[in-house]
Amino acid sequence: MPSITPVIMSGGSGTRLWPLSRHADPKQYRPLVSDRTMLEETAVRVTQAGADVKRPVVICSEAHCGRITSLLAEMGGPSAVITEPVGRNTAPVAIVASLHVAQDDPEGMVLLLPADHFVRDVEGFWQAVRRGEEAARRGHLVTLGIKPTAPESGYGYIKRGAPLTEGVYEVEAFREKPDVETAKSYLEDGSYAWNAGIFLFRARDLLEEAQRFVPEMMAEVRKAYDRAVQDGTTLRLDEASFAQVPADSIDYAIMERTERAAIVHPVDVGWDDIGSWSAVASLARGADSVAAKGDVVTIDCEDTYVRSEGPLVAAVGLKGVIVVAMDDAVLVIDESRSQDVKAIIEQLKAGDRSALL
């Protein structure tokens, strides 16, 4: 039976979690919900499966290669670290992953997933992957459709279509991030899922669809891969070739255009993309009202998250507030406005303070 190779996408910058997450040290290399970094959490998750699941491959920026090797050394390390000289979004990453897997096993399967997502129910996650496996072996490009728990306007949605196998459906439509009222209608409908950006497919099937829909991207990515430099378990994609690769997401480039898209639905595994400080605070607090990490003292606080990576932080009488203190920057924000960190980022850029990003 063909094997599954988990390929962890670890190239994001994670600026929504500023000031903890920076371009040089993004959120996937930080402990957010446990003592392990998000990359370590993801690597542990994808190694808790059967013998047909290979050691993971990690695709990242060149700047973070050494960090990844160090972080994952205790668990035997990834089977390969593939470095991108520049970021080009997820479609080129999916092609690189497929070329790499197909090189060893033309029938091999790719489990493509982000490095920085949280999954509470690891067993349930693998049950969902196994549900999608049969459809993937029959040539479908499968995505895991997360069961919505709220009318979230910050995620894209996928509408399921006709059934293929138990718990797996054709994809009827991809929907952009909706307004709140539309998100409420999706929640009530029951046939919509959050798009988590987690995919399962045979490598050759993805390559076929890439050749069909984005042949120029396919050609340049293949050049970059064929001209890559091997250094132990590290594979450095050719910079000149990869610079010519058009940037696009796997959703826009392939998934929304192919007739072979399928969805496992509903997937209810306690998933969160940890895309805001509100998400971090909610996971950290659990059933409690206040959560603190680092050198922190709180008195008479409610619905509050306080985190220090350096100085002592003392908070009194706060309600619904998030505080994150670094050596060079402190964020104090109303939790209901945690998405507005992006406005701070824009102000820092405009004020020539990009060194803090």
UniProtKB/TrEMBL annotation:
- The record places domain Nucleotidyl transferase at 6-282
Q: Name one GO biological process term.
A: polysaccharide biosynthetic process
CDD domains per the record? GDP-M1P_Guanylyltransferase
What the entry lists under InterPro entries is as follows: GMPP_N, Man1P_GuaTrfase/Man6P_Isoase, ManC/GMP-like_b-helix, Mannose-6P_isomerase_type2, NTP_transferase_dom, Nucleotide-diphossugar_trans
Specify the MannoseP isomerase/GMP-like beta-helix domain's residue ranges.
294-348
User: Per UniProt, which keywords does this protein have?
Assistant: GTP-binding, Isomerase, Nucleotide-binding, Nucleotidyltransferase, Transferase
Mind listing the GO molecular function terms for this protein?
Answer: GTP binding; isomerase activity; mannose-1-phosphate guanylyltransferase (GTP) activity
Protein name, per record: mannose-1-phosphate guanylyltransferase
